[in-house]
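Hi everyone, sorry if this is the wrong subforum. Our group has a chain we'd like a structural model of before ordering constructs, and none of us has done structure prediction before. Sequence below.
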Amino acid sequence: MKLRQPASASISGAAFLVDRSGLTDAVKSRSIELMNSILGTTFVLVFKVWGFHWNMVGDSFHPTHKWFQKLYESLSEDVDSTAERVRAMNGKALGSLSEMIEHSIINETIPGELPSIPEMINILLLDYETSIRQMRNACSILAAIQPQDDGDLNYLQDMIMRREKDTWMLRANS
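Answer:
Right subforum, don't worry. Here is the predicted structure as tokens:
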């Protein structure tokens, strides 16, 4: 039996698979824009947690150090899967630090500033809550423009649930 080759097309000489998902180009474009913003925010957040993980000092160093490692590992998976969602829609995922910072809705850590562990937790709590609001907003926008885009909506809702659990833990420790 001969396998059918996937349909492909070419733009500027580069081959790519034809998208037959049923989403319009306008919907995909808006989804890519929203996902890249979430990618930038999540990347800045993972880097902030990572920096706090490296530089913390204090009585609760050991358990907080291990906890923050779990946080940045989870966020790193979200960064990778969000970039892959963008690529799945034939979009270009953000690929530079400056793009990540530009598209993020949270600020990076102030250079040279070393907050205490309780301050780190409070900073992260605010940033996690901000990222959840961003994802909820993206869900609202996507549901309004393409109610059948279950893939992106489910993806974001799953990420919101994970982020809410981490936010609960941050809040319980603040």
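For your construct planning: Strands lie at 8-11, 14-17. The longest helix spans residues 25-55.
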